[in-house]
């Protein structure tokens, strides 16, 4: 039998067979099983709710499409005033500075890295305001956006305030940092000037302590650290070239001037030193312990240079002082250097090769030695 | 001229040798412009840094001459065999064939197919085996050697320690000098991966294996400057791992070794201060200064060496500055981190200081 004949025979047989019949019990069964499957699927936890990986492009498009459509439809019921309240721009700007700028940023005020990691990512408003009508902006500001970080207006009965904010948003794209500062903080003021250096230090003290010695074993001693090192490290956090979720948020937007004052302040406190308490680190001694041996002599057979080659006395100020540093902190940093994850000053990559061949035992020994030989403590 | 733009590669000795004649003849035959350009490009790529002569066929040492003799013996033996086999083949396919009787055929197979190869191979093998004791120093050779040079291969450079009988060892790097007419024993080790020690005109090659000490004996017969490449692939910069081997008259050698044993006598300078301040001393030793690291090459008399970077760049201030700034570009995979973040004035000051360490 030819293939064609076989096909024709099959066609005849299958058309003679009755089509699949859907009975009521199938429909009912489907709607009972479906929610059970959904719950089981959710319970398995396989669906990834992490913000770190972002949405698929198509999910992202769909969610935006749904959001924009919803705002467009619901804004149809909003009655726009004849003109936006000009006098509302200033108070709205003052409110924007403390309530909105933290996520959306403002002219001349970068957001912290934490906000940039939100999902969805809060847009820079100056570039999107023009894509909405006044009524749509009103709708978003008053009611917020579900499943995003966008909250509703705190007082739902104060539509007048919402219109003030819409008036401000209309002005936002044309505002430079100077004009924004004047609107939000007053003439000659800025967010920086409103915070004194003492307040800044109090901010740092939350973790580093008033004395700069650190309030936990994992917080480094910064008191007595080399000023050049502190300056370049802080700058690296401000410029986001040194990874650190805690410090990049803490140092967000600091001006060079503030960074300089903070570095000067902590460098001036008693703390770290370049020489060990028990004598000069340059002299090799017999029977020294493993940590001291690596710090003072290195291990040439394993290509490990001596720590004090760079961190000892009369070395470059960008190389940090280590004597008196906390052991846990040193260990963590050495592990990060070993994995090439630690950056910071322009000299930080020197440590990648230096730490490359350190074992966990070496790291523990070196950290213990450097911590125990604190100079001025 | 800014440090980071100076990219001139040293031109090779090989360009001036036989390879050029061969290439130009090929280019002439080819006649086309593109072919000639290709040949020039090929030569530029394959040219070796001007460390010195690197041909095993132009021996300047006892071991290398035995190896060269063995090579020529093998070549001549091989050529004769080839001629013989080809003649037999031509005889076999000649036009007017004649059937051999069984007795003649049997004799032909026995003499030409069994006895001849056995005898020839036995002679060649016997000659090679007879040479071996001279190339691999056994007890007598060791006793005769007055100087022992310990060479340690590292990615991607050579640490050399001269052990003189009854005297302090002398540490240096990337350059090996030896006296003409005196047997020198090499002890070869490695601290990371397998390297191989070879000075083609003098002797070798011998693998350098981590955890093992291999021995090699070399008797230089002529003074000269030779290139010793690493002869075992050892990583990204394997091709940039070489040393200069210099055979000298014994008197000159001894005065050189005495000078090499002494500490550096640096003038106090910005470069000297910066070398320690920037932490270079954590990896490099300059005897007589605070720099005492042993992770990288000893630089006590680096200014007097022929090349820097283990046969990578000529020894000029410009090249030293470039090496300090971008060892990751000059020698990919090298342990030394780049110092391009330093101000150029500091790099130049250190380069001038190092070049002055004669």
UniProtKB/TrEMBL annotation, chain B:
<keyword id="KW-0479">Metal-binding</keyword>
<dbReference type="GO" id="GO:0020037">
    <property type="term" value="F:heme binding"/>
</dbReference>
<feature type="transmembrane region" description="Helical">
    <location>
        <begin position="69"/>
        <end position="93"/>
    </location>
</feature>
<dbReference type="GO" id="GO:0004129">
    <property type="term" value="F:cytochrome-c oxidase activity"/>
</dbReference>
<keyword id="KW-0349">Heme</keyword>
<keyword id="KW-0249">Electron transport</keyword>
<dbReference type="GO" id="GO:0042773">
    <property type="term" value="P:ATP synthesis coupled electron transport"/>
</dbReference>
<keyword id="KW-0679">Respiratory chain</keyword>
<dbReference type="Pfam" id="PF00116">
    <property type="entry name" value="COX2"/>
</dbReference>
<dbReference type="InterPro" id="IPR034236">
    <property type="entry name" value="CuRO_CcO_Caa3_II"/>
</dbReference>
<feature type="transmembrane region" description="Helical">
    <location>
        <begin position="105"/>
        <end position="130"/>
    </location>
</feature>
<dbReference type="GO" id="GO:0016491">
    <property type="term" value="F:oxidoreductase activity"/>
</dbReference>
<comment type="function">
    <text>Subunits I and II form the functional core of the enzyme complex. Electrons originating in cytochrome c are transferred via heme a and Cu(A) to the binuclear center formed by heme a3 and Cu(B).</text>
</comment>
<dbReference type="InterPro" id="IPR045187">
    <property type="entry name" value="CcO_II"/>
</dbReference>
<dbReference type="InterPro" id="IPR008972">
    <property type="entry name" value="Cupredoxin"/>
</dbReference>
<dbReference type="InterPro" id="IPR009056">
    <property type="entry name" value="Cyt_c-like_dom"/>
</dbReference>
<comment type="similarity">
    <text>Belongs to the cytochrome c oxidase subunit 2 family.</text>
</comment>
<dbReference type="InterPro" id="IPR001505">
    <property type="entry name" value="Copper_CuA"/>
</dbReference>
<dbReference type="Pfam" id="PF00034">
    <property type="entry name" value="Cytochrom_C"/>
</dbReference>
<feature type="transmembrane region" description="Helical">
    <location>
        <begin position="38"/>
        <end position="57"/>
    </location>
</feature>
<keyword id="KW-1133">Transmembrane helix</keyword>
<keyword id="KW-0408">Iron</keyword>
<dbReference type="GO" id="GO:0005507">
    <property type="term" value="F:copper ion binding"/>
</dbReference>
<keyword id="KW-0472">Membrane</keyword>
<keyword id="KW-0812">Transmembrane</keyword>
<protein>
    <recommendedName>
        <fullName>Cytochrome aa3 subunit 2</fullName>
    </recommendedName>
</protein>
<feature type="domain" description="Cytochrome c">
    <location>
        <begin position="266"/>
        <end position="358"/>
    </location>
</feature>
<dbReference type="InterPro" id="IPR036909">
    <property type="entry name" value="Cyt_c-like_dom_sf"/>
</dbReference>
<feature type="domain" description="Cytochrome oxidase subunit II copper A binding">
    <location>
        <begin position="144"/>
        <end position="259"/>
    </location>
</feature>
<keyword id="KW-0186">Copper</keyword>
<dbReference type="InterPro" id="IPR014222">
    <property type="entry name" value="Cyt_c_oxidase_su2"/>
</dbReference>
<dbReference type="InterPro" id="IPR002429">
    <property type="entry name" value="CcO_II-like_C"/>
</dbReference>
<keyword id="KW-0813">Transport</keyword>
<dbReference type="GO" id="GO:0016020">
    <property type="term" value="C:membrane"/>
</dbReference>
């Amino acid at each position: 039998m030819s293939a064609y004949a076989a096909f024709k025979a099959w066609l005849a047989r299958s058309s003679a067979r009755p089509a699949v019949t859907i009975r009521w019990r199938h429909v009912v069964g489907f709607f009972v099983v479906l929610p059970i499957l959904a719950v089981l699927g959710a319970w398995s936890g396989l669906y990834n709710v992490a913000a770190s990986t972002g949405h698929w492009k198509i999910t992202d498009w769909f969610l935006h499409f749904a959001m924009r459509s919803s705002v467009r439809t619901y804004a149809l019921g909003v009655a726009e005033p004849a003109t936006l309240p000009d006098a509302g721009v200033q108070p709205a700007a003052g409110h924007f500075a403390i309530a909105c700028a933290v996520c959306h940023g403002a002219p001349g005020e970068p957001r912290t890295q934490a906000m940039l990691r939100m999902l969805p990512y809060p847009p820079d408003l100056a570039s999107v305001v023009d894509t909405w009508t006044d009524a749509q902006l009103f709708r978003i500001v008053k009611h917020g956006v579900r499943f995003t970080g966008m909250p509703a207006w705190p007082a739902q009965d104060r539509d007048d305030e919402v219109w003030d904010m819409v008036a401000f948003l209309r002005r936002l794209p044309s505002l430079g940092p100077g004009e924004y500062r004047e609107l939000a903080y007053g003439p000659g003021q800025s967010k920086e000037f409103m915070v004194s250096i003492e307040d800044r230090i109090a901010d740092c003290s939350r973790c580093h302590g008033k004395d700069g010695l650190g309030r936990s074993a994992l917080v480094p001693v910064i008191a007595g650290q080399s000023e050049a090192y502190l300056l370049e490290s802080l700058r690296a956090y401000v410029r986001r070239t040194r990874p650190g979720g805690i410090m990049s948020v803490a140092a967000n937007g600091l001006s060079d001037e503030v960074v300089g004052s903070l570095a000067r302040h902590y460098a001036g406190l008693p703390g770290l030193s370049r020489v060990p308490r028990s004598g000069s680190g340059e002299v090799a001694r017999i029977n020294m312990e493993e940590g001291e041996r690596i710090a003072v002599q290195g291990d040439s057979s394993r290509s490990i240079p001596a720590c004090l080659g760079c961190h000892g006395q009369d070395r470059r100020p960008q190389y940090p002082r280590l004597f008196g540093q906390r052991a846990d902190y040193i260990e963590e940093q050495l592990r990060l250097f070993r994995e090439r994850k630690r950056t910071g000053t322009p000299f930080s990559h020197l440590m990648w090769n230096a730490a490359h061949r350190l074992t966990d035992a070496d790291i523990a020994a070196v950290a213990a030695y450097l911590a125990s030989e604190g100079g001025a403590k | 001229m800014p440090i980071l733009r100076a990219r001139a590669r040293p031109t090779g000795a090989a360009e001036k040798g036989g390879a050029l004649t061969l290439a130009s003849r090929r280019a002439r035959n080819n006649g086309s412009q593109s072919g000639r350009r290709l040949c020039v490009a090929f030569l530029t790529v394959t040219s070796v840094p001007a460390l010195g002569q690197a041909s095993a066929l132009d021996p300047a040492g006892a071991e290398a001459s035995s190896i060269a003799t063995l090579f020529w013996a093998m070549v001549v033996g091989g050529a004769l065999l080839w001629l013989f086999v080809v003649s037999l083949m031509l005889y076999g396919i000649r036009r007017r064939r004649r059937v051999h009787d069984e007795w003649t055929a049997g004799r032909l197979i026995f003499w030409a197919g069994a006895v001849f190869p056995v005898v020839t191979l036995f002679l060649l093998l016997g000659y090679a085996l007879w040479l071996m004791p001279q190339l691999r120093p056994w007890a007598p050779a060791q006793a005769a050697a007055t100087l022992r040079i310990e060479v340690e291969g590292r990615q991607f450079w050579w640490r050399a320690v001269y052990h003189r009988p009854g005297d302090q060892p002398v540490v240096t790097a990337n350059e090996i000098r030896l006296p003409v007419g005196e047997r020198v024993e090499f002890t070869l080790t490695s601290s990371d991966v397998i390297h191989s020690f070879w000075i083609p005109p003098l002797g070798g090659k011998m693998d350098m294996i981590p955890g093992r000490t291999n021995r090699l004996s070399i008797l230089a017969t002529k003074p000269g400057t030779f290139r010793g490449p690493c002869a075992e692939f050892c990583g990204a910069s394997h091709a940039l791992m070489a040393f200069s081997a210099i055979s000298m008259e014994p008197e000159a050698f001894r005065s050189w070794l005495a000078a090499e044993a002494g500490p550096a006598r640096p003038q106090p300078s910005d470069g000297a201060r910066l070398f320690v301040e920037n932490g270079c001393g954590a990896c490099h030793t300059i005897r007589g200064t605070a720099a005492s690291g042993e992770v990288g090459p000893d630089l006590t008399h680096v200014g007097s060496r022929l090349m820097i970077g283990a046969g990578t760049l000529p020894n000029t201030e410009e090249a030293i500055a470039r090496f300090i700034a971008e060892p990751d570009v000059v020698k990919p995979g090298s342990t030394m981190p780049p110092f391009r973040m330093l101000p150029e004035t500091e790099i130049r000051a250190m380069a001038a200081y190092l070049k002055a360490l004669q």
